[in-house]
Amino acid sequence: METAAVFSTAATVATVATVAGRANGGLRYPLLSFPPPNNNKQFRNQLRFTSLNSSTTYGNVNARAIEVASSLSVPSETVDLNWDNLGFGLVHTDYMYTMKCSLGESFTKGELVPFGNIEINPSAGVLNYGQGLFEGLKAYRKEDGNILLFRPEENAKRMMAGAERMCMPSPSVDQFLQAVKATVLANERWIPPPGKGSLYIRPLLMGSGSVLGLAPAPEYTFLVYVSPVGNYFKEGLSPINLVVETEMHRATPGGTGGVKTIGNYAAVLKAQGAAKAKGYSDVLYLDSTHKKYLEEVSSCNIFVVKGNTISTPDIKGTILPGITRKSIIDVARDQGFEVFEKPVTVDELLDADEVFCTGTAVVVSPVGSITYLGKRVTYGNTGVGLVSQQLYSGLTRLQMGLADDKMGWIVELK
After folding, report:
1. Cα–Cα distance for residue pair 51/21, rounded to 1 Å
2. Burial of 144 (0-12, 13-18, 19+ CB in 10 A)
3. Is 414 labeled as catalytic in the residue annotation?
4. Three-state SS string across the chain, please?
5. What is the full per-residue pLDDT of the chain (414 aa) written as tens digits?
6. Catalytic site residue from 41, 109, 157, 260
7. Residue 363: left if φ>0, alpha if ψ -120 to 50, beta else—which one?
8. Do the Cβ atoms of 224 and 178 come closer than 8 Å?
């Protein structure tokens, strides 16, 4: 697939370079070239690109053309935030991206609009029947001013897979990438300084059309917003404490546990709230059939270390195929570890040398203790385990552009 794009403003016209894709089957990414932001300077942009066509049951997911058109006033003032104390919470930024299409059609035109509330019908499919998906990825700022995205095409592909399961049309990979890039660059001043955090990017896909009877919504909205963030867990890279949930389950075979649909997350709130009330950081779920195999934490994948071997539950439809999970597996193998994707029992967990979680928000989070049926098992006495630290450093150095990108995972915006 090839793409070409042109970005134009009232002051200048800049042709967008197309560069060869890396490790992605030949995709090409347009690199947007924005003029320096001037306070109160109005400009209008248009972004168009072409790509190959491909259809699914619920819509044309690879539109032949997309257009982004917005009238923007990009502030140039610096952001008054305490970058050293961000935490993981919503900060209202300047702009968000939105695009709509009807059921059976394709997404073709989107726009950047000021960040704010959206209007939606009370009978919208997402509100009544939970027809919605979301993604999560991050942008990082380098010392030289470059802005980096980490494997954004993987998020796009996962949204497409989830949309098929949830009977929704989806943006193509190219459309997803352009929306993310445009949103990040429009909110560039909100990207934390190097080493102070990242700009969390939240793409949403939802059934926004009104529907009373149980059926796919007639209209869909794709939306992207961003927020600067720090650590997800208050412990930061310090070890977290998990409790194994034996009664409630996150997902069941044949369900939607393997896609990033919104209902998966509401379903964990009860157990998570009870665990936090008892002083735990989060909940580790077991499979719903045998109740002895590990699945995942509320919003993270789980890894178990024994010697030079690292094991993680295999993807079988009830576990989300995490992009950080996938990346850590490759980084660990590159560092000489043996990594197995297989059923992992509670006994293996309790006998492990080290345990850690992975996810976009947490990156790598070491586990200090696991409590199972009232029995507490601790891991290590010196804080962060050596393997967790090694893998965390290896992955974050890649994400922040501090290490050579041998994997071809980084997309540069500037």
Report:
1. 14
2. exposed
3. no
4. CCCCEEEECCCCEEEEEEEECCCCCCCEEEECCCCCCCCCCEEEEEEEEECCCCEECCEECCCCEEEEEEEEECCCCCCCCCHHHCCCCCCCCCEEEEEEEECCCCCCEEEEEECCCCCCCCCEHHHHHCCEEECCEEEEECCCCCEEEECHHHHHHHHHHHHHHCCCCCCCHHHHHHHHHHHHHHCHHHCCCCCCCEEEEEEEEEECCECCCCCCCCEEEEEEEEEEECCCCCCCCCCEEEEEECCCCCCCCCCCCCCCECHHHHCCHHHHHHHHHCCCCEEEEECCCCCCEEEEECCEEEEEEECCEEEECCCCCCCCCCHHHHHHHHHHHHCCCEEEECCCEHHHHHCCCEEEEEECCCEEEEEEEEEECCEEEECCCCCCCHHHHHHHHHHHHHHCCCCCCCCCCEEECC
5. 333 333 333 332 232 333 333 333 333 333 333 333 333 333 333 333 333 344 454 555 443 334 455 567 777 778 889 898 888 999 999 999 999 999 999 999 999 999 999 999 999 999 999 999 999 999 999 999 999 999 999 999 999 999 999 999 999 999 999 999 999 999 999 999 998 999 999 999 999 999 999 999 999 999 999 999 987 766 567 899 999 999 999 999 999 999 999 999 999 999 999 999 999 999 999 999 999 999 999 999 999 999 999 999 999 999 999 999 999 999 999 999 999 999 999 999 999 999 999 999 889 999 999 999 999 999 977 678 999 999 999 999 999 999 999 999 999 997
6. 260
7. left
8. no
CA distances from 389 to 308, 329, 394 (A): 15, 15, 8
Strand partners, 284: 244, 297
Which has the closest alpha carbon to 152: 136, 168, 141, 132?
Answer: 136
Q: 220 - beta bridge partners? A: 101, 207
